[in-house]
UniProtKB/TrEMBL annotation:
Residues 160-180 have a biased composition (Basic and acidic residues). Residues 157-180 are annotated as: Disordered. This is Preprotein translocase subunit YajC. The lineage of its organism: Bacteria, Pseudomonadati, Pseudomonadota, Gammaproteobacteria, Oceanospirillales.
Length: 180
């Protein structure tokens, strides 16, 4: 009887530690986020750009400051309104780029979209970076294959900003502005 009481007390002491242990899914997502961070991808959990809201993971590939990217937002058809313009099979424009994408960049974008997992909901590009909003269903090995495709797209979009780059002022112009 004493042994039973001792085992019960030990079980009560150890059970909270078992609750704090991450689940296999949390461990997989932790490894995925760590691998992405090591590859230079900024991983953030934030408010989803979708209308139904909620938290979603975003993986951002930053454009170099001197080579900003175009502004666009593509939404998976399953979560998009029928009023949005069709881009390719399964994806619709929420915001279309002002300047049309070159054929090579467009082909890369279509390839990336076709190969993304089903839980990828939004692909967004801004001056600062290319962002993938998704629910992190892949393991590290599968993500690395996707990462290379997205990196190729990222490199093809860098420097194709919709807005003209700010003009750098020369010495005389800076002096004239300082006098005003």
């Amino acid at each position: 009887m004493v042994w039973l009481i001792i085992l019960l007390v030990m079980g009560l002491m150890l059970s909270p530690m078992m609750w704090l242990r991450p689940s296999p899914q949390q461990q997989r997502m932790g490894k995925l986020r760590e691998a992405a961070s090591k590859a230079g991808i900024r991983v953030k959990l934030g408010d989803s750009p979708l209308h139904e809201g909620g938290q979603m993971a975003s993986y951002r590939w930053a454009y170099p400051g001197e080579y900003p990217g175009p502004r666009f937002v593509l939404v998976r058809e399953a979560v998009a309104s029928d009023a949005l313009k069709q881009f390719t099979d399964g994806w619709r424009w929420r915001i279309e780029p002002i300047r049309p994408l070159p054929s090579e960049a467009k082909a890369r974008l279509e390839t990336v979209l076709a190969e993304l997992p089903a839980d990828a909901k939004v692909v967004e590009s801004s001056r600062e970076g290319l962002t993938l909003w998704w629910e992190e269903s892949l393991d590290v090995d599968a993500f690395e294959r996707q990462r290379d495709n997205v990196l190729n797209l990222h490199q093809g979009l860098a420097g194709r900003s919709d807005e003209p780059a700010p003009r750098k002022l020369g010495f005389r112009e800076m002096r004239d502005q300082a006098r005003r």
